Amino acid sequence: MVGCAGSSLAERQDENVESSLQFDSVPCDQLLAQRNALAQQYHLPQDAKPSFSNSGVGFGPFTPDVRSKARRDAEQASGRIDAMNRSITRRDCGKPDKQNKFALPS
Hints:
By secondary structure, the chain is mainly α. The chain has three helices and no strands. It has helices spanning 9-14, 28-41, 69-90. Helix 2 packs antiparallel against helix 3. It is elongated, with a radius of gyration of 19 Å. 15% of the residues are buried. Residues 1-5 have low confidence and may be disordered.
């Protein structure tokens, strides 16, 4: 079992969860474009979220990761898209700027 360290299904799926803070410095229009391109590249919805397989109680750390490279890449992309969406939501990207118009009462 020592040889399986770092390559179990549970460990690899946990790696798909990313912090959204890394995207907070990316301008909203660029972030939206990056998210849309990533979703299109992997044929994922724009609201993709990382998925986790139920490997049975207690067996997660010992279940080998036998997913194809294409599937691993798509699941990693879904985690990245989810992180981008959390940054987009937190910063209200994609919504029109609030108009602060002050009008004198008539």
